[in-house]
Design brief:
Helix 9 packs parallel to helix 10 and helix 13 packs antiparallel against helix 14. The chain starts with a helix and ends with a helix. Helices cover 65% and strands 0% of the residues. By secondary structure, it is mainly α. Among the domains are: 106 residues, Serine Threonine Protein Phosphatase 5, Tetratricopeptide repeat, CATH 1.25.40.10; 105 residues, Serine Threonine Protein Phosphatase 5, Tetratricopeptide repeat (Alpha Horseshoe). It is elongated, with a radius of gyration of 47 Å. This is Signal recognition particle subunit SRP72.
């Protein structure tokens, strides 16, 4: 009895310690006291619960979950449902957390909050939106602002990833988080300018709220603003301002933010800007996308986009095996997605295996008819690159949902014209016109009231007629022009074309139709000549003639007389000009190109060449034997002293030799020999 009493007293003291530490937030010391209590009674439910809470507060989620799973008999799902689900959520076991929440007998407010977070991570946005609406409606505490922020985040995710037009929640954007989420929703709708204004407001609110705390430094503020600046850079990138976006992205990376998800997204966006250029920078940036925990921070579509870009980067860096491996993995994850098969086909084309690439695309089109149109367009492009234009046309004509579109008709006609296959081009026009006729009949539902043809239909008929006239198919063109004229008898242009066509086939019919042309009186055009000359496209503008006063008239007349008296100045003649001598007709040609040029006379100065350095002339003083090295030097000429002194400063003393030395004579002899080779 005394031992039991002593144990109870010790336990009471320990519980007091646990309570005091919990209030002070010292959960590490509280955990030590709880462990001592459990040594006294290992199945104490309250002590086990406290131990789980202390471990969670210390961030030891795995150990806390281990305690729960070890004591399942004592810690039932009703007792620790929230703690177990929260540990699973923090350990990224999202599916397990969802099962734990759903299996709880009582749905507390804490479980509902966690349920909303779990649904968001699972990207079940509709259910998540309903959960947060229910929480906001039925809760009144200090966490209402956080719930509204989470609600706006769900709406932004729907707008971005599911392209759902967000509804106006009526939330007052008093915090920078709400402004940021609103901007994300606007980006999803493509309203980039409005989104940028929201982000600028979010930045301002963030600075205001954080600057109020004296403990927050400027570095802390910049780190918090990093995600806002990242979204600003993304908008710049979407707007085509890639240089500004790249600069802002690199500024964020220099800050070294702790959010691995933010770094991965920025690195991916830089890679998309680089494309096939600056691949070394892209290879550095791709390492940021492989950081630990990135897969838990980003959505599935973000992760998929990063993997696509990794495959493309492998292709650009000529890592064929890596590219095939990544694209095959992506295709197995998303068999219906277009990009993996397109990347594989692009890699095959880089390896000059065009036929294999076309076969790969054809197999995908057969397996996934819903995506066949885009795949066949790529196949046609490959055929054109190979020079098989006719085969490309056949592929394009097999796309039923596009073959009647004006753009497709234009492309096919151009390609057939290039191949000089006029019959096939006309057939394309005919099929498209027939399709629109059938479409007209379907929309009229058998009504007897006349319905005018659509503008696209009439445009196709006109283009077909022009094409046939251009290629000499006048009879076929006439039927199209008659159809157009029936639709609009007042169309003078069509009537003129019809008359022109008939004049080559049936002149009598052309005369009959010409009676329907309007008279020349009705064709008179009211044209304002001044307005036409002053228009933007006028090449010549006539000066407006204003009324001149008497003085101005005299000035104008005086200027006119001066202009009349001006004569062209005579050209200057050379000083030695002789009018009696006929000028040389070849005087404008260079001397070498003139007919009388005989070249330079050689050997004229041969007798003047004496001893000395090459190129020097021999004078009498140099041939005088009396002027030897022993003779006293003459006075230097004015101005030569500076040159000598400068030369003596440049040449070191050990390189100087006395005048008349044998070495000097040798050098002169060598120079003479060299000169002999040069033609002296």
């Amino acid at each position: 009895k005394m031992a039991a009493a002593a144990g109870a007293a010790a336990a009471a003291g320990l519980w007091s310690e646990v309570n005091r530490c919990g209030q002070n937030g010292d959960f590490a010391r509280a955990l030590k006291s709880v462990n001592k209590i459990l040594q006294i009674n290992k199945d104490d439910v309250t002590a086990l619960q406290c131990k789980v809470v202390c471990l969670i507060q210390n961030g030891n989620f795995k150990e806390a979950l281990g305690v729960i799973n070890t004591h399942t008999k004592v810690l039932t799902s009703d007792v620790v449902a929230f703690e177990k689900a929260y540990c699973e959520y923090r350990l990224n076991r999202i599916e397990s957390a969802l099962k734990t929440i759903q299996s709880a007998s009582q749905q507390t407010d804490k479980l509902k909050e966690l349920y909303g977070q779990v649904l968001y991570r699972l990207e079940r946005y509709d259910d998540c939106l309903a959960a947060y609406r229910d929480l906001i409606r039925n809760s009144q505490d200090e966490y209402e602002e956080e719930r509204k922020t989470n609600l706006s985040a769900v709406v932004a995710a729907q707008s971005t990833w599911e392209k759902v037009v967000p509804e106006d929640l009526g939330l007052r954007e008093a915090t920078y988080e709400l402004c940021y989420n609103s901007a994300c929703a606007l980006i999803g709708q493509g309203k980039l300018n409005e989104a940028m204004k929201k982000l600028q407001k979010a930045e301002e609110l963030c600075r205001q709220s954080l600057s109020e705390d004296s403990d927050v430094t400027e570095e802390d503020i910049e780190a918090e603003l990093a995600i806002i600046h990242g979204q600003m850079a993304y908008i710049m990138q979407l707007q085509g301002r890639t240089e500004d976006a790249l600069q802002l992205y690199n500024q964020i990376i220099k800050l070294k933010p702790t959010d691995v998800g933010l770094l991965a997204v920025i690195a991916n966006n830089i890679i998309t800007i680089n494309k096939d250029q600056n691949v070394f920078d892209s290879k550095k940036k791709v390492k940021l996308t492989n950081a630990e925990g990135v897969e838990h921070k980003l959505s599935k579509k973000q992760l998929q986009a990063i993997e696509f870009n990794k495959a493309l980067l492998a292709m650009y860096t000529n890592q064929a095996d890596q590219c095939r491996k990544l694209s095959a993995s992506l295709q197995s994850q998303s068999p219906e997605h277009l990009l993996p098969v397109l990347i594989q086909a692009a890699q095959l084309c880089r390896e000059k295996q065009h036929a294999k690439a076309v076969g790969l695309l054809q197999d995908f089109a057969d397996q996934h008819p819903a995506n066949a149109a885009e795949i066949k367009l790529t196949m046609a492009q490959l055929k054109i690159a190979q020079g098989s234009v006719t085969k490309a046309c056949m592929i394009l004509r097999s796309i039923e949902e596009l073959q009647h579109k004006p753009g497709m008709v234009s492309a096919l006609v151009t390609m057939y014209s290039h191949e000089e296959d006029i019959d096939s081009a006309i057939e394309v026009f005919t099929q498209a016109i027939q399709w629109y006729q059938q479409y007209q009949a379907r929309t009229n539902h058998g009504c007897c009231v006349f319905q005018p043809k659509s503008p696209v239909h009439l445009s196709l008929i006109r283009e077909a007629a022009n094409f046939k006239l251009k290629h000499g198919r006048k009879k076929e063109a006439i039927s199209d022009l008659e159809e157009l004229w029936k639709q609009n008898p007042k169309d003078v242009h069509t009537l003129a074309q019809l008359i022109s066509a008939y004049s080559l086939v049936d002149p009598e019919k052309a005369k009959v139709l010409s009676k329907h042309l309007p008279s020349s009186d009705t064709l008179s055009l009211k044209v304002d000549v001044d307005a036409l000359e002053n228009s933007h496209g006028a090449t010549y503008v006539r000066k407006k003639a204003g009324k001149l006063t008497g003085d101005n008239q005299q000035k104008e007349q005086g200027q006119g007389e001066v202009k009349k008296k001006k004569k062209k100045k005579k050209g200057k003649l050379p000083k030695n000009y002789d009018p009696k001598v006929t000028p040389d007709p070849e005087r404008w040609l260079p001397m070498r190109e003139r007919s009388y040029y005989r070249g330079r006379k050689k050997g004229k100065k041969k007798d003047q060449v004496g001893k000395g350095t090459q190129g020097s002339t021999t004078t009498g003083s140099e041939l005088d034997a009396s002027r030897t090295a022993s003779s006293p030097p003459t006075s230097p000429r004015p101005g030569s002293g500076a040159a000598v002194s400068a030369a003596s400063n440049v040449i070191p003393p050990r390189h100087q030799k006395p005048a008349g030395a044998p070495a000097t004579k040798k050098k002169q002899q060598q120079k003479k020999k060299k000169g002999a080779k040069g033609g002296w």
